[in-house]
């Protein structure tokens, strides 16, 4: 056994020893957080009792979302672990929604499944797990594969369809793969209307949980623009296009009688007042 393997075993043993202690600390911290919230009238969201009643089966939302887990062979172990964390966040978001979407994982039979087994009891989550491909689970005509390379813009969610998110963390190494696979499978494909509502300086490649949450927020009644601005992290530096158009109009209308300057995307107008 190599030194690296021994180091891993010792690290795991140490983690197992501290697991119980860590869980107790987390419970105490959560207890203090609830007490503080009650004392200051802070809403912590739905209670555990309410969440038990909020299930996919009882949900008014019938929008289907599945994560295609067929890309394990294209990812290193570290990226598979990242994908697992993103799926955990998707589950948490859906679990806390008043009207959860119909959430599933398809082609769930590789390395990702092994990583998920580290989370005891995941089989009992309110998520549907399928070892089969999405093509063998859902009617072909009801499938819409989400891919940023698609020429089709999704303007609204079809409530009787299933939106497929490619479960791939590849740092853009396999650009266009999901689009290619969707075309080969003969299923519909589309992209989120990012360009129509936002101007972004950063890359427009979104993580699995970001795409999932955007769909969830839109299913809850938010506009695309509201969902994008709520979900996308600040590092994306996303700005609503409507605001930029209004700024350009302001510049055009006021340039003759006002001094206008723009810094970091913010328009500053200095009025010339004659006294």
Automatic annotation (TrEMBL):
A GO biological process of this protein is: tRNA N1-guanine methylation
Molecular functions (GO terms): tRNA (guanosine(9)-N1)-methyltransferase activity; tRNA binding
Which portions of the sequence form the region Disordered?
A: 1-29
Which top-level group of life is the source organism from?
Answer: Eukaryota
E.C. number, please?
2.1.1.221
Q: Where is the active site?
A: 170 (proton acceptor)
Presence of keyword Transferase: yes
Q: Where does S-adenosyl-L-methionine bind?
A: 146, 166, 178, 192
The reaction(s) annotated as catalysed by this protein in its Swiss-Prot or TrEMBL entry are: guanosine(9) in tRNA + S-adenosyl-L-methionine = N(1)-methylguanosine(9) in tRNA + S-adenosyl-L-homocysteine + H(+)
Protein name per Swiss-Prot or TrEMBL: tRNA (guanine(9)-N(1))-methyltransferase
